[in-house]
Amino acid sequence: MNRCRTSRGRTLLHVAALLGAIVVGLGLLTGNATAATVLTLVTFDRAAGQTPESVAITTDGTAYVSLAFAGQIRRITPNGGQATLTMPTAGGITVGVAIDAHHDNDLDVAVRSAAPNAAGIWRVPRVGFDHPTRIAALPTVSFPNGVTFDADGNLYVADSDLGRIWRLARGASQATVWAQGPLLSPTGESFQGFVLPGANGLKIRGKTLYVSNTSTQTIIAIPIRRDGTAGSMAVRFSGVQIDDFAFAVNGDLYATENPPSRLVRITPCGVVSTVATATDGLENPSDVAFDPRPAHRRDLLVTNSAYFGTHPSLQEFPTGRVGQRLP
Fold this sequence. Notes:
The protein is built from 1 helix and 27 strands. The chain has one helix at residues 12-19, and strands spanning 29-32, 39-43, 52-57, 63-67, 72-76, 82-86, 93-100, 106-112, 120-124, 133-137, 144-149, 155-159, 164-168, 176-180, 190-191, 194-195, 199-205, 208-213, 218-223, 234-238, 242-247, 253-257, 262-266, 271-276, 288-290, 299-304, 313-318. Strand 25 (288-290) and strand 26 (299-304) form a beta hairpin.
């Protein structure tokens, strides 16, 4: 992300410092954007615990959705075909999902569980969509949430309870603590009896890992050094209660605000606009991802009613703007 300048040549960061009380980090200016027609692609059964938490999409448009409380993964093909896989969570939940481009586009799934033989990262084969195997264990006190790969096939995992980022090197069987600290930790604040996560969603853009901390309403930037270690972390945006997010090719960040039930866009300059709200059908949205197919790259898929809502679904929001970079 480039530093942005005002018409008088001062950076927004400098303006925010002058205004102090307005915001921490980059100043967030607010605006509104009219949402396009919302399309509900799939509905889920809340009574069966089918609360959609995360979504990952392959290059052919197949979507994988984690159904948290059901402990399941739903595969949804572009032609509407569906298949459901129940994960060995031992009473836990399925959380973050990511496509491993370095391992035949298999699916990696984060599982939160109190059972030592279940907590960790599991791999689901793309071919067959069956027989998941655990590729790395995590502590039972861990809350593995968002997951993402870097260009070299290393997996990063946000830990919402322990306030850290785990890193599972490509081909490794043991995750290591890559970064941790107060900026990634939860505050203890709760919403409807649920403790808000610390480190939650995460994505890589360039040589930087961006992490949302839902409880502190911040997005943290952590440089990835040449040797793969973490650089000094800092607040990049503040005042947005983000669960997870996705980057457009121009650097715009599209994010779900979970308790506020909003989908927002944040420009690299820190300008925030509302893309959709509860009036557009959003209810406790969790994850967001661009459809990578060339004809659909401006479309966003959003998991809706992740924990508290009553209408769990996978929705599509056309952005009307630039989308994800073409392969």
